[in-house]
Each structure stands twice: as C-alpha cells, then as structure tokens.
Amino acid sequence: MPTKIQGKSIIVTGAGRGIGAEIARGLAADGAKLTVADLSEENAHAVAGSIREAGGTAVAVAVDVRDRSSVRAMIGETVRAHGRLDVIFNNAGVAQTKPFLDITEEDWRFVNDVNALGVLIGMQEAIRQMQAQARDGTGTGKGGGKIVNTASIAGKQGYEPLAHYSASKFAVVALTQAAARAFGKDGITANAICPGVVATDMWKVIDGGFREHGLTSRDNEAFETFAGIAVLGRPSAPQDLVGVARFLASSDSDFMTGQSLLVDGGMVFV
Ligand SMILES: NC(=O)c1ccc[n+]([C@@H]2O[C@H](COP(=O)([O-])OP(=O)(O)OC[C@H]3O[C@@H](n4cnc5c(N)ncnc54)[C@H](O)[C@@H]3O)[C@@H](O)[C@H]2O)c1
Fold first, then answer.
1. Distance between Cα 1 and ligand 1 center (Å)
2. Taking a C-beta distance cutoff of 8 angstroms, is the pair 263, 195 a contact?
3. In terms of Cα–Cα distance, which of 15, 21, 128, 111 is closest to 72?
4. What is d(CA 177, CA 189) in angstroms, rounded to the nearest whole number?
5. Distance CA 149, CA 164 (A)
C-alpha cells in the first residue's frame, strides 16, 4: 500500500548529519523523493548515497541557506530531479554558547544569518516555486505545498547563555506564523518542529561552549542537566523527530498551519 508521502518531492536542508539526515532517511524510506541539502557537500552526498543504497530516491545538493542564489539553485536541482517541489524542511542551523553580556554583533549575525535569515530565504524561494506550480498545474492536488521549519524549545523560551540562538528560533516561530497567514489562500501550509535536547554534533558545540565559559566543569554536564528536565526521562535522539516530520509532510496535517509543535520529551509545556 502506498504511504501518504509516497512520491512527494521533499527538500531537507542541513540534512548532511543530525536531525536533518534522520528526517531525510525516514521520509525516503516511506517512498518520498529527497533532496539532501547541506553546506557540507561531502556529508550531503554520504546521506543521499545511503538512501539510494537502501533502495530510496535521493539527490545531494550543496547549499548555503544564507545565500539566495544558492537556495534557488537547490530548488532548481530538485525540480530537475523530481519534477516539482512539494515540501521543504528548513532545518539547517547553527548554535553558539555565550554568556548574555559577551554576545557580540558578529555572534548575533553568525547565528541569526543561518537560523533566521536562512529560514526566511528558504521559505520565500520554496513558496515562489509552489505558487508557480499551482499556476502551471505541475503541483500536487490543488497546488499548495508544505513548509516545515526547525525551531526549538528555545523558540518558546529564552535560555541563557543561548540568548541569540533563542532569538533566532523565536524568529523561526514568527516567520512560520506570518507565512501561514500570508499563504493559506494558496493552500500552502507552514508549521515548525520544536525539538528539545537532541544528541547530535550541535549539542557537542553547545556543551563545549558551557565548559569554555566556565559554566560547567565536565564534558556532557550541560547536555545531561538540560536533558534531565524532560519528563520522559531521556535526551532525544534524531529518530524521535521523524514521526512528526512524516506527519507534517503528509496529507494528515493538511488542515494544520501556523503551528510550532514541541517534540521534546516533555520539557516545555505551553
Ligand atoms: N540538537 C538539538 O538539541 C536541537 C534542539 C532544538 C533544535 N535544533 C535545531 O535542529 C536543526 C538541526 O540541528 P542538529 O542538531 O541536527 O545540528 P547539526 O549541527 O548536527 O546539523 C546541522 C546541519 O546544518 C548544516 N548547516 C549549517 N549551516 C548551514 C548553512 N549555512 N547552509 C546549509 N547547511 C548548513 C550543517 O552543515 C549540519 O550538517 C537546527 O536548526 C537546530 O537549531 C537542534
């Protein structure tokens, strides 16, 4: 029996490793056609290759989500490979640990350029493509399309010493709501996933920052302390985000838009 995302053309940015890689693998296993996009071309190729070896469909694309021409090229390659674009996961992100008073303008731009501006550009260019498909009839159903952004628990609460990271993720939630209001008339939905503490390379960066600034005294201390808050009693693995990704990519979520779903093992209740 075909799955609900069988044959859909799906881009996942930041899919060279971590959460994005696992989402790409999970959706490809369900029969979707993937574009594995990442700043690291090498990692994107490795993940796309592993999908093809498992019998799935995937192309690898090098992208810098901060660069509009690069994002346009990614969408162009997707349409060439899979015929159209149905869903984009704007998942690429960076983190940095800095005590509030030490955050510089450069730090702010580094984090917000990728996490907020990168998501804005990814949404704009994907929506333009989806609107064009609706006009020329190459889209699925009544046209439309699905935008799924990766926000964070830090998009719901401000965390010290991650103030600029938190601000970037609040921006993702705001962009998700604004696009939902703007493009509902086109049948385009925009939702976000808010993970909690996920065991990926990003947390190694965050945890290292806590140590570097003398906020913790041993490796993994920050990771364990934060993850310890989750009522389900363990940190997340990237696989924990695949179910919600599948739901948001499928027709099961067609009447949901503007929402930012916490999938964090029970850390933040709002
Ligand atoms: N790990 C967590 O605990 C956690 C929690 C909440 C939200 N998130 C969010 O989930 C997303 C994925 O995080 P992860 O934990 O898998 O991190 P990760 O560092 O393992 O992977 C992020 C990927 O994004 C890519 N990337 C970075 N800058 C890019 C750019 N300019 N253009 C294209 N790709 C770029 C990196 O090369 C990397 O492959 C991020 O948006 C992150 O903020 C992570």
1. 33
2. yes
3. 128
4. 10
5. 18
Question: Is the Cβ atom of 14 under 6 angstroms away from ligand 1?
Answer: yes
Taking residues 101-124, report their average pLDDT.
98
Q: Whose CA is nearest to atom 1 of ligand 1?
A: 198
- Write the pLDDT tens digit of every residue in 6-65: 999 999 999 999 999 999 999 999 999 999 999 999 999 999 999 999 999 999 999 999
**Atom 30, ligand 1: residue with shortest CA distance:** 64
Give the pLDDT confidence of 34-44 residue by residue, as tens digits.
999 999 999 99
Active-site residue identified among 89, 165, 183, 210: 165
10 Å CB burial of residue 7 (0-12, 13-18, 19+) is middle
Domains in the chain, please, with CATH? Answer: 9-197+237-263 (3.40.50.720)
Task: Please confirm, yes or no, whether 165 is among the known catalytic residues.
Answer: yes
